[in-house]
Amino acid sequence: xxxxLLVQGVKQVDEVPRLNxxxxxxxIRFATSMEELQRQLPGADVMxxxxxxxxxxxxxxxxxxxxxxxxxxxxxxxxAMFDELVASDVQFTxxxxxxxxxxxxxxxxxxxxxxKRFPQTLVYQQRCEWNYRLSEMVAGKRALVVxxxxxxxxxxxxxxxxxxxxxxVGRSVRDGDPDFGHIHAIDELRDxxxxxxxxxxxxxxxxxxxxxxxxxxxxxxxxxxxxxNIGRGALVVEEALxxxxxxxxxxxxxxxxFVEEPLPPQSPFWNAPNCLVSPHISGDFVEFETVMAxxxxxxxxxxxxxxxxxxxxxxxxxxxxxxx
Length: 324
Description:
By secondary structure, the protein is α/β, with parallel strands linked by helices. It has two domains: about 5-100 and about 285-305, Rossmann fold (3-Layer(aba) Sandwich); about 100-275, Rossmann fold. Helices cover about 30% and strands about 15% of the residues. The chain contains ten helices and 13 strands. The strands form two sheets. An eight-stranded mixed sheet has the order 8-9-7-6-10-11-12-13, covered by helices on one side. The longest helix is centred in the C-terminal third of the chain and has 17 residues, at about 290-305.
């Protein structure tokens, strides 16, 4: 019997790179809605969650009685985590590693944009104004990376390579870390914030980190700080961030993620002072879907040959607890 693979988020084989390689080796099904998931899950051995934003699996879970493995095509897995799945024996893997370098580059790009005043340069150019101004140095500035998974580590390494002083906050305090040296515990966050010129939020979204950055945290930042969020929108109390931008409590923000996506046209973030908005693209690059498919195909080969899977998520924690 061929294993049954259910691909969530697409309608046909050619929507996922390299999936046609499995046509002769698996029964492939597709689902783009919760109702289709409910119909297609019975008998499915493996589910490929190609649409990492979709939260429909929770409502269809009662039909997943034969499922043995889920691969999620994203680094964050919060959309797919719920109590019944966590308690099950289903293995869960993710796309850890695919987005590390592009997201680190995006963060560096935002930092350089702020320091060299690129948004203002474009405005003056559009006005045909020759407006002399000074920029800031990036080297020597202090960055605080909140979240020390593979993406946070890539961010820390790249920022350190351009001469920034980098601190990190993780779940628990650690010394002798190969990338950060010392890692502060999450309960030390407010003590670390006043020292940072740039705060980068890339911790996984869990019940413990939801609303991690609220009014008290923004008040603890110094007024020259820029806040960068590439994790999840719900890590931030958005009303508190808007107030901090409006009142000048922080110098700016670069936001790639929001509680509501797509960001509605009426959202105040579009016109918030010194706020750069992008549509959840910090990790996406030309042909990134091919890289994700390569990762899944490699794990598929492991699955059918009985080998241990790569990038196994600790479902209780909501992320891969060790390097692949």
